[in-house]
Write a structure and sequence with these properties.
Order of helices and strands: HEHHEEHEHHHEEEEHHEEH
Radius of gyration: 30 Å
Shape: elongated
Number of strands: 10
Number of helices: 10
Strand content: 15-25%
Distance between the termini: 62 Å
Length: 239
């Protein structure tokens, strides 16, 4: 019980325990002793501004000495006000600084922040959107070529833009696809649209191709519906 109470108290502690914002450099010059006493021994982040524009972001194990240093180094005379934020947990400081640098890109910082223990999700997003585009193209091409063999009904559906699964069920049903040791799940709606992984598709083949990473797929065979304890292929319902 005591251990749980300690954890709760710890969670409630804020990352930032104190701050000063947009304090002019002239105030710092005039009352540096007061400010120094307020942040004595504290660590955190600070920001230097040139008028209203962010100029520089930095971290400091000693906020007092760091701000004073910028009154004498290469940044001297280039900033007119500053803000500082006292950080409770020192381990958060570097990561927060990197985040600010990446968001704001201050002109006075030569180095951009590195998020060392974070994964860049952009390559994954590019790959997934490319796979989805390829899957949709293949599926549409496949649907067109298959429809020509299936006769008048297929031609009529394509001409009208009707979804091939429209009216197959009187209500929304869950559909399943066993593939490479996994069970993929989607929703097939009365309108014929299929919702898979938060995206809506017009045909079972398009949704199936996306699930298979862009491979051309016959959705009528790939997707199945539960009947009792069995999974029955969609093509059986179409018949």
């Amino acid at each position: 019980m005591k251990e749980r109470m300690k954890k709760r108290k710890y969670k409630k502690r804020p990352i930032i325990t104190g701050y000063l914002e947009k304090v002019s450099s002239s105030i710092f010059d005039k009352h540096s002793g007061i400010i120094a006493e307020m942040v004595k021994g504290e660590q955190g982040l600070y920001a230097l501004y040139r008028k209203d524009k962010l100029y520089y972001v930095g971290l400091a194990r000693n906020l007092k000495s760091r701000v004073k240093q910028h009154q004498r180094d290469k940044h001297s005379g280039k900033w007119t006000s500053f803000s500082l934020y006292v950080i409770h947990h020192p381990e958060h400081i570097k990561e927060l600084e990197s985040l600010l640098l990446r968001i704001a890109y201050p002109t006075g910082n030569a180095v951009r922040g590195k998020l060392r223990r974070s994964a860049n999700m952009l390559p994954s997003l590019k790959r997934k959107t490319k796979e989805a585009a390829i899957a949709e193209w293949r599926s549409n091409f496949e649907s067109a070529s298959h429809g020509m063999k299936k006769g008048a009904r297929g031609r009529a559906q394509r001409a009208s833009g009707e979804r091939p699964c429209k009216g197959l069920f009187s209500k929304t049903v869950r559909i399943y696809a066993p593939y490479k040791g996994e069970i993929y799940k989607a929703w097939l709606r009365r309108s014929g649209s299929i919702q898979f992984n938060g995206t809506t598709y017009d045909s079972p083949s398009t949704a199936g191709a996306v699930a298979r990473g862009g491979k051309a797929t016959n959705g009528w065979i790939f997707w199945r519906v539960k009947q009792g304890e069995k999974l029955v292929r969609l093509r059986e319902f179409r018949k």
